[in-house]
Amino acid sequence: ALGAVFEHVYSNASWTKPSTTGFMTSLQSSVLGNVAGGMFEPLPPEARTMAERFRAAGYQTAVFTSNPWAGSLSNLERGVDVLRDQGVPTRAGSSVELHRDFWDWRDDFPGEPYWVHFQTTDVHDPSRPVAPFAGLFASPGEKLQLEEWDSTLSQWRGRNAERLQTDPGVERNDWAETGIDRRHYFSVIRSIHDETMASQDYQLGRFVDRLKEAGQWDNTLLIIAADHSLYAGA
Predict the structure, then answer these.
(1) C-alpha–C-alpha distance, residues 225 and 4, integer Å
(2) What is the 3-state secondary structure (H, E, C) of 9-46?
(3) 66-93 confidence digits (pLDDT tens)
(4) 41 with 34: CB under 8 angstroms?
(5) Spatial distance between the Cα atoms of 141 and 4, rounded to a whole number of angstroms
(6) Spatial distance between the Cα atoms of 59 and 51, rounded to a whole number of angstroms
(7) Residue-wise pLDDT tens digits, 114-158
(8) How far apart are CA 103 and CA 214, in angstroms?
(9) Angle at which helices 94-108 and 182-213 pack, to 10 degrees?
(10) Are strands 82-84 and 60-65 parallel, antiparallel or unpaired?
(11) CB-based contacts of 102: which residues, under 8 Å, 6+ apart?
(12) Contacts of 92 (CB under 8 A, 6+ apart)
């Protein structure tokens, strides 16, 4: 078989820092101490990262990400020979730039074996799909409508800031009091999210094609995952 698909997956957290440190160390957030008040605590030295383990086994190691929470802000540069964890001009098009960084690295340091981790922001809020995928599932009118809805919801939260502080349950009234159709709102968000997914899927396909052209595919183990989902509480 060329691969396997896991239909049931579980994230260690609902946002990048605790989730990424979790799968880079195989440890729960409760062990790493980076939940709640520990938001900005670096990864403890006792927790060995995947990069450290691979380097100890004789691998070259690299991390290419446009989210520093998946890099230096989480102390995940440990054991990494080459690290890029800064933003890109177009967040939704990060795969293009990060994959280019990877091939430049391989040209400069072609030795094997190597381990590399990509953590893109193609699929990340705020979603700004790039051409030719922008408009594939959500029309320009729907995107303008979403901006108006977001503005209305933001104004509602501003007017009700004091109520929300004393009774968080008040937030459940936002849809009724603003008159926004909740299902339509999240349907548009999902459509835009799907556009960014389609874009990233295309770039992954191009990446695999190039690995095959370079004769590296048969000696490659490719794992595709995500650090967390979208709108887990919505």
Answers:
(1) 12
(2) CCCCCCCHHHHHHHHHHCCCHHHHCCCHHHCCCCCCCC
(3) 999 899 988 999 999 999 998 887 788 8
(4) yes
(5) 39
(6) 9
(7) 999 999 999 988 888 999 999 999 999 999 999 999 999 999 999
(8) 11
(9) 20
(10) parallel
(11) 62, 64, 116, 118
(12) 121, 122, 124, 127, 128, 129, 130, 196, 199
The identity of residue 80, as a single letter, is V
Task: Report residue 34's pLDDT band, with 50, 70 and 90 as the boundaries.
Answer: low
Question: Residue 2: CA atoms inside 13 Å, Cβ hemisphere, count?
Answer: 3
Residue tagged 């183990």 (tokens): 221
Q: Which helix (H) or strand (E) holds 164?
A: helix 161-166
Q: Are 49 and 24 in contact (CB under 8 A)?
A: yes
pLDDT at 171 over 80: no
